[in-house]
Design goal:
CATH class: Mainly Beta
CATH topology: Immunoglobulin-like
Strand content: 35-45%
Shape: elongated
Number of domains: 1
Structural class: mainly beta
CATH architecture: Sandwich
Largest sheet: 5 strands, antiparallel
CATH superfamily: Fimbrial-type adhesion domain
Number of helices: 0
Strand order of the largest sheet: 1-2-7-4-5
């Protein structure tokens, strides 16, 4: 005797597929040298309807430069500042960008955690980072996409 049984893939749903984060104004003096950071601003990627035990991995992709594999998000074309970029952090670790793919083992994909059921929050931080000797004040805007992989 046989019975019908579904084959399922563990998953979650993304609560907000677009997350806008507003950083505080930064004084050029706080970015005095290459690699200096300021304006750390926390935000979350929220997931819901998670199957308990779902392993969640994330890849961030630089939408302004999809071949970027560094830990500095490129400025969007409408930015007027120069010599600065944005850095996203998982805890205190800068996140490197990768290709827009949910495949397991995708370049620069990182493990965000295991869902304990229902909802899951992935806490991140974004901050300004000095990238060049020449710093030009102006507007800073970055665009990144996130791709979630479930196992």
């Amino acid at each position: 005797m046989f019975s019908d049984g579904p084959i399922t893939q563990p998953s979650c749903s993304v609560t907000n597929s677009s997350i806008a984060v507003t950083l505080p104004s930064a004084d050029a003096a706080s970015l005095s040298a290459q690699g200096a950071t300021t304006g750390a601003t926390p935000f979350n990627i929220a997931l819901n309807n998670c199957d308990q035990g779902t392993a969640v991995s994330v890849t961030l992709t630089d939408a302004s430069n999809i071949s970027n594999r560094s830990t500095t998000l490129s400025l969007a074309p409408d930015s007027t500042a120069a010599g600065v970029g944005l850095q996203l952090l998982n805890g205190s670790t800068p996140i490197a960008y990768g290709p827009d793919s949910a495949s397991a083992g995708n370049q620069n994909q990182w493990f965000a955690g295991t869902a304990s059921g229902s909802s899951m929050t992935i806490p991140l931080t974004v901050q300004y980072v000095r990238t060049d000797d020449a710093l030009t004040p102006g507007t800073v805007r970055g665009l990144a996409t996130f791709t979630i992989a479930y196992e």
